[in-house]
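Late entry, written up from scratch paper. The run itself happened at the end of the previous shift, but nothing got recorded in the book at the time, so transcribing now.
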Amino acid sequence: MSGVREVEAVFREERGRLLAALVRRFGDLDLAEEVTSDAIEAALKHWPVEGVPPKPGAWLMTTARRKAVDRLRRDQAFAARLAILQVEADRAAHAPPADADGELPDERLQLFFTCAHPALPAEDRGALTLRCLAGLTTPEVARAYLVPVQTMAKRIVRAKKKIREARIPFRVPGADELPERLPGVLQVIYSIFTEGYAASSGPDLQRLDLAEEAIRLARILRRLLPSEREVAGLLALMLLVHARRDARTGPDGEPVLLDEQDRGRWDRDLIEEGSALVMTALSGRPPGAYGVQAAIAALHDEAADLATTDWPQVVALYDVLLALDPSPVVALNRAAAVAMRDGPEAGLALLDELAGEPRLRGYHPYLVARADLLHRLGRLPEAAAAYRAALDVAGSEPERVHLRRRLAAVEES
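Output as recorded:
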């Protein structure tokens, strides 16, 4: 069993690199996935007996490349391409399949930008990223998005077809394109994390597997783009938020609010790592939105309790964030911070100003924030109505249980 576990650990680390290298070599995502699976299957057969080779990535690449050529020879649909691909395969066969140190070249950055290409539907980008870069199976991706496996399989096939038919290039955008394209990649990773942080539906408040996959993807991206400060900012933000994971739910799985969390259960190693990355994200040029959000998260994580949180600084950072991202969601979060700095009446006034925003209509966090402030002000009938509205749109079952209890407390007051 230990041999199998060792092989699986190597597979987890090498799969994305291998897939990216094969897409680069053969120009076909489906073919690359098939022969990646074939190579892994061969490794699972041989390595537990023979041992993991010193350069597992190079072994997998050699095996996968041979299997790709074999498949192309058998498949008449690829006959027209085979001669061209065979030239490339033959050239590669006489060249080292790795870099100067014998390691498989890391071409995952190209795969990040392919999976997050703006030509793909937004719902497909995250699914394809989890499938190709995180290495999740189609059933695992389906569970992540809480859709039937058949639905997810069709979605992934559709995305691959779009890549093929639209001839979406497998490449890193040029320096002039990167500022426009990188935010899309970051948004895909962050959307995966936010679904893990607060599940949109289902029996659990948190999906820790998804949150951790998003962090792993961000770590890869950080290694590939070490000079991009917003990559550092996104990773910092996720680490600082994920550090509170163990304290965010009670024994029955219900949400534990920030002011009630046992901060001794927060992960100090993640907080330290995230705080150091904040300094990187905020250095140099004007900060980006992820860096500012990470700085806000750091202020929360570094405070001893809610009362000693530097709320004036939190509000000031939200002012900066609102200038960078003038969205009603940012304005909502700023209003909640103002309520902590200046009192619930000031916060509620700001929330009332946002009442007409279409994006906040039926938005669960807005309804909960308004209900909580009305409760704090003693306006109990209005608070009860707001809690009922929030309960109508709550996603996960733990959130619904939590809101029902808060509603009962207001009604009994």
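DSSP finds 19 helices and no strands in the chain.
(Scratch paper discarded after transcription.)
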